[in-house]
Design a protein that fits this description.
Length: 198
């Protein structure tokens, strides 16, 4: 591992990702990347998540930094569920996900511009939501929580009331798969633990 550590940058404004990293004792510089997140024609969900993570990591990277970016999506029947446009779409998404098992995909990219190195990974977790009544969907959407979440629910918030089972990594559903992230740091010859604040 190099003697001088680069500055860790999180290319995301996601409060969930910030909380996850701070929970590890990390204090990244938060610099959200503003990119076009429109899926390309015929783009598979896994390739979409990885492409967005890569583009976010590279968007405003500077020498002396180690830039982390991620993109989390929900997939059901090969259809991508991103963040809902409004409350009506959030309710529609929840109605389709309720009582079924869907896939949560997180594309992660770790970019070191000084060395021109990028490590990328895609992590998949399966989540089963309980059957939900119309009243429960209306209530949950009314809390406002689903409105900025992929798939219109938050496993770490009120949405946990409706998450019946998780097959795979929990932190991946929150938006950042931590065991895989530690491996990615090692792949670039760093130890994630060394980036903890004193």
């Amino acid at each position: 591992m190099p003697d001088a550590l680069p500055r860790l940058v999180l290319a995301s404004g996601s409060p969930r990702r910030i909380d996850v990293l701070r929970g590890l004792g990390l204090d990244p510089l938060v610099r959200p990347a503003d990119i076009d997140e429109t899926p390309l024609a015929g783009e598979a969900p896994d390739r979409y998540a990885l492409r967005l993570a890569r583009e976010k990591a590279h968007a405003r990277a500077e020498a002396g930094e180690l830039v982390l970016a991620a993109d989390t999506i929900v997939v059901l029947d090969d259809e991508l569920f991103g963040k809902p446009r409004d409350a009506a779409e959030a309710g529609e998404m929840l109605g389709r996900l309720a009582g079924r098992t869907h896939q949560v995909l997180t594309g992660v990219a770790l970019y070191e511009p000084a060395a021109g190195r990028t490590e990328e990974s895609l992590v998949s977790t399966h989540v089963h939501l309980c059957a939900m009544t119309e009243e429960e969907i209306v209530w949950y959407v009314g809390t406002g929580e689903p409105l900025d979440k992929a798939g219109s629910y938050a496993v770490q918030g009120l949405g946990a009331l409706f998450v019946d089972a998780i097959d795979g990594n929990y932190s991946n559903v929150v938006g950042l798969p931590l065991p895989e992230l530690a491996r990615m740091f090692r792949a670039l010859d760093y130890d994630l633990r060394q980036f903890r604040s004193p």
